[in-house]
Design a protein that fits this description.
213 residues, alpha/beta, TIM Barrel, 8-stranded parallel beta sheet, 8 strands, 42% helix, globular
Length: 213
């Protein structure tokens, strides 16, 4: 058994909740390094860049019909068509232009995906995500245009106070009556699960240090 599979099993055991989905963040890693996890039976993988994901997964998807691919990085509108076609989940919807463009290509491609609204929970200027004060109106807009929003996503500020922000997102998610939450990474995934996360995004704890691009 590969070390990557052992790492994944350790994380799965530490979560001890079958309702939590582990998204293995496979950005920068080549398919050969990811394949042992697929062969083991794991299906959820996350990528940050559309072009890298196309290069890695487009020709491999047909061999693994159970794969579930997650776009977890910022999505530019000029990449939406490829993203809608390739991914099953997109975690970074945060503005009306992007939402409209997604629906346009869903209709064109006759494909319905699952979406998270990214919330800028710490109101950080350098991060993507919609402001909390605009979230309710934006969610209603997404419903109006029939975007299949299943939950909220956040990346809390890097100040070692993640629990505070996870609690806030959990409350917001419940207020909107959404069933899924995408939050928690290698450093704080157990805290995220404690506050109701159903999708955790874990990379280095599974694959090890990634190459710097």
């Amino acid at each position: 058994m590969s070390n990557i599979v052992k790492n994944f099993q350790n994380i799965r055991s530490s979560i001890n909740n079958s309702n939590v989905n582990i998204i293995d963040v496979s950005k920068t890693f080549k398919f050969d390094k990811i394949k042992p996890l697929i062969d083991f039976g794991h299906n959820h993988f996350g990528e940050n860049k559309v072009q890298e994901a196309k290069d890695k997964w487009l020709n491999n998807r047909q061999n693994y019909p159970k794969l579930q691919l997650h776009m977890i990085g910022k999505l530019q509108t000029n990449k939406v068509k490829d993203a809608v076609q390739l991914f099953d989940y997109i975690h970074s919807v945060d503005n009306e232009k992007l939402a409209n463009t997604i629906v346009k290509y869903e209709n064109l491609l006759a494909k319905k995906n699952k979406y998270f609204i990214q919330v800028n929970i710490g109101n950080e200027t350098q991060k993507s995500g919609i402001n909390i004060n605009k979230l309710s109106d934006f969610y209603l807009f997404c419903k109006k245009i029939s975007l299949n929003v299943i939950g909220l996503m956040c990346i809390p500020p890097n100040n070692k106070n993640s629990k505070k922000y996870f609690f806030e997102i959990s409350k917001l998610n419940k207020s909107l009556k959404l069933g899924q939450i995408s939050m928690g990474m290698t450093a704080d995934y157990l805290d995220a699960v404690q506050f109701g996360s159903t999708f955790v995004r874990i990379g280095s704890a599974i694959f090890g240090d990634r190459a710097i691009k």
